[in-house]
Amino acid sequence: MDEKSLLRGRIRELAGAAYQNDYMTHTVFLSASEQALFYDILRADGENPASEKAYGAPFVVWGGWEESERNVFCFLPSYMDKESLISAEMTEPSVVSCIRITPVNARFADALTHRDYLGALMHLGIERDQIGDILTEHAGDKSLEGPEKGGREQAYVFVLKDMAQTICHDLTQVRHTTVTVSEVAPVQCTVRPAFTVEEGSVASERLDAVLAFVYRLSRGKAQELVAAEQVFIDGRTAYSAGYDLKPGSRVSVRGHGKFVYEGQVHTTRKGRLYVRVKKYS
User: Fold this and answer.
1) Residue 221, helix vs strand vs coil
2) What residues pair up with 183 in beta bridges, in sequence order?
3) Same domain, yes or no, for 213 and 276?
4) Is the pTM of this model over 0.85?
5) Domain of 262?
6) What SS3 state is found at 9?
7) What is the pLDDT, as a whole number, of residue 157?
8) 15-22 contacts: CB < 8 A, separation 24 or more?
9) Could you tell me the CATH number of the domain that includes residue 204?
10) What is the rounded CA–CA span in Å between residue 176 and residue 184?
11) Strand ranges across the sheet with 96-103
């Protein structure tokens, strides 16, 4: 059975249980490509994703913070709505927990990366679909947002609630750094990815034109990246350099980074488009 069929069966099972038995159900964490597939399945089955309902059950997409990339789909009972679920999850989570990882001795800590934290968690035998976003902060990093910017070496990791205490108990080391791990309310996570907002003119919203603007490339080089399957839009491989980006599209380019296309600001007198992107460091 292929990935689409497996996901369709799981969605129907979870949504059906929530609708018929009136209790909340949820998926594991889905990647950006799996989330796109979720919406494709709904459309193929005659559902309207904009209604935020699947097979009769309302659903909420939640990953522990407001711009999460990896998300859980929660199917709601009749007595719960989106606002009440998120409000509860931020302070007393029942679906997505947040764990904070800090070095025991910050002076001798490695400069740990997203890959280091993920590798340490998976080394414990935890599956990738149990782990959501990993937000890292490095001591002396002045580019981070929030009141703790430039404060300490630490990471906040969003995980399924059932895994939180296991991780707190079992995770003691990341690379060569001895760490302490605690479960905190998601609202206590103040770290956010560093980004800059950039604006500039492009000939069109074509993928190659926007890539050339964001990464200061020639259109030819941007087209080569697409042809080499190095460009991903909302988690899916981009196969056409002529694809027109939509506002909100998340674009990642191997070896270059990622950005969110925020759309047109205005049109210049010469007919070029002035666009805005949020470029992550």
Assistant:
1) helix
2) 99
3) yes
4) yes
5) 195-280
6) helix
7) 98
8) 15/54, 15/55, 15/56, 15/57, 15/59, 15/75, 16/55, 16/56, 16/57, 17/75, 18/57, 18/75, 18/76, 18/77, 19/55, 19/56, 19/57, 19/75, 22/77, 22/78, 22/79
9) 3.10.290.10
10) 24
11) 131-137, 154-160, 96-103, 177-184, 173-174
- Residues 105 and 173 reside in one and the same domain: yes
User: Do residues 213 and 253 both lie within one domain?
Assistant: yes
- Domain count for the chain, please give it: 3
Judge if 100 and 184 occupy the same domain.
yes
Q: In a structure prediction context, what are the per-residue pLDDT tens digits for the chain, which is 281 residues long? A: 788 999 999 999 999 999 999 999 999 999 999 999 999 999 999 999 999 999 999 999 999 999 999 999 999 999 999 999 999 999 999 999 999 999 999 888 888 999 999 999 999 999 999 999 999 987 655 444 444 444 578 999 999 999 999 999 999 999 999 999 999 999 999 899 989 999 999 999 999 999 999 999 999 999 999 999 999 999 899 999 999 999 999 999 999 999 999 999 998 888 899 999 999 98
What residues contact 241, with CB distance under 8 A and at least 6 apart?
206, 207, 208, 222, 223, 226, 227
Same domain, 268 and 201: yes
**Which residues, 6 or more positions from 214, have their beta carbon under 8 angstroms from its beta carbon?**
198, 259, 277, 279
CATH number of the domain residue 155 falls in? 3.30.70.330
Ordered DSSP codes for 29-92 = -B-HHHHHHHHHHHHHTT--GGGTEETTEEEEEE-SSTT-SSBEEEEP-TT--HHHHHHHHHHS
